[in-house]
Amino acid sequence: MRQQRLVAAVLAGCTIAALPAVATATASAAPPEPTASTQLPAQATPEPDPGGGLGDQAPGGGSGGTIEPGPGGDGSAAPVPPPQPRPDPEAAARARAAEQAREQARLEKQRAQAAEQAAEAAATAQKARASWESHGRPRQMVIVRELQIDVVTDGRHTRRTPRSQGPLTLGALDRYLPGPWLTVSDGTAVLAATVVLTPGATLDVSGVRTLKLLGGPDPSDAASIYTGSGRLALRGVAVTSLDPVSQQAVAPAAAGRPFIVVSSGGRLDSVDSAISDLGTLPLGAGDGRPGVQFNPGSSGSLVRTALLHNSAGVQLSRSQGVRLEDVTAGRSAGDGVVLRGDRATTMSGIRAVDNGGNGVVVAGENSGRPVTGIFTNGNGAFGLVVVGQTGALINGITTAADEAGGLRVSRSTDTVISDFKADDQPIGIFTHVNSTGIVLDRVHTTGGRRGLVAEKSTRRLDVVGSTFEGAQVAGLSLGGQDVDLDAVHVADSRTGVRIERGASDIRVNGLIVDGGEDGVVATPGTHNVIVSDLVANHVRSDAVRTSSPDMRIVGGQITGGTTGLDIGAAATIDGTTITGADEGIHSRSAALVRIERVTVDAISLGVNAVDGSPLVLRDSRVHALESVRGDVGEEGVNDLSLPPLNLLGAIGVPLILLAFVLEVAHAVRLRRFRGRKRTGPSVAVSTG
Fold this sequence. Notes:
Shape: elongated
Transmembrane segments: 647-668
Mean pLDDT: 87
Signal peptide: 1-29
Strand content: 35-45%
Radius of gyration: 55 Å
Domain Right handed beta helix: 312-468
Pfam family, one: Beta_helix
Region (Disordered): 24-136
Largest sheet: 35 strands, mixed
């Protein structure tokens, strides 16, 4: 019995010792609500045995000591586990609320991110749509960004693909686009989508020989290229258009013909390339598009580049610092090169040939850049047109065989044109529509109908050191006001200078006229005409023929011709020398003509005043077979006599030669007559 009690006590001690650990594990695993398993009963302390033991002796009869059921086995009481804290329901609720808040915040963040992404996608789509709207609504469009490529189909943004930074070649672009949009094969690329570059993006077209831009009958068919604020680089490539139906270049009249636009902040650099069959013609109220257009604020260079068969070759509209070097603009439907308010443009070696309109047009606001280094030939209108310019400098221009003329100046002020040449032009230079302050310096025209035409609205025209040769009608035709000719040379033209009705304040100084039919002709209705120091050499008809009232002829030397001066209105002639003309001065004016200090050595007639033509001769020398004819009043000391001996000799020698020739001809005829044999008439013989 005692042994059973001992075993029970040991087991009880072990149980009590294990209770704290069990309680701890239970508390950590149990829910917050208290349970019966967490309430441990109080452990009673065993009463001490009177004999100093537990009251039961060990089998050996000894006392055995007191057995303590504690874990130490030393008989002391087992420790009581500390009371567990009672769970707090409010804390648990707070914990649950915090967890719910964290979950809600996570969901809100996800929703915000989704909304941001949706807004970004919507903004991207909106920008793509706006870009699509502003670029002609093409069916297919690609936007090349510095780090992405956007694909737009019928105005919908359908794809955005990241790309590596740096210039983009056509081969690389092909990898980002849907299959039919761009094909590259055997050095030829066919692009069926409009390309729009953005800031920092560069499209390098140098790895192919030919780039064909697809087009068609509708504007949305055009696969045009817009640089945006990026850069387009062409090197050794031919850029043209392609009609997918005919597999030929797109027709000039097609509304869907592609083109190249260099936008503000953008740049086009073309070297050793050709750009052909691009641009649209004006349609209705639209202005059309040139093959290549530099917009305001754009820049770039065209070097050794040909612009052929375009609507207009190239147009610079308020561009900045474009370099044009060895550029050929030819066979365009309209104008070859259009400079409209461009700034700091440099030009050299420009050829504008066989264009349907003008070769080169300078228009828009004046920018101060010189227009130079241009050659034109065979254009449908003028070689060079200058419109609405102030202070323009035109230098080093050569034009030939353009259908309307070499140079047209309209609505321009204070424009200087120097070293200009025109060959075989209907009009070498034409000034009109209130052009004022025009200076023509070292101009040279050859052939054609008229070298210079100054229309009646021209004001303050100066022609200096210029030459006009071989004009079929007139070297210079002047209809404006306040015109000065200084050291001008006219050769072999039907009329050297023709002063048209309505002209006034015309001053001709140091004019040289060689050959031709007439030298200077002043028509009725002109006023204030002065001719000074004229030199006329062997003009066939009249060196000067005038119907301009109060015309003044001062100085000058006239040699040869039919008539030196043919005067049809009141005039004053002072200090002029006439030599070798058949008739020196012929007056048919109803108003008084005054002749002072002149020298006339004529062949047949010195001074001839027809009936009703008053004429006064003062201090002059007139020598001719008939020195004076008609009602001629004399003042001062006049020398009127036969021609000088040298002139008589000049007259006699041709007469002697003529007589000798006639005598020889007569002798030859006589010899031939005597050498002929005369035969008598035949006699009939009778046989009867």
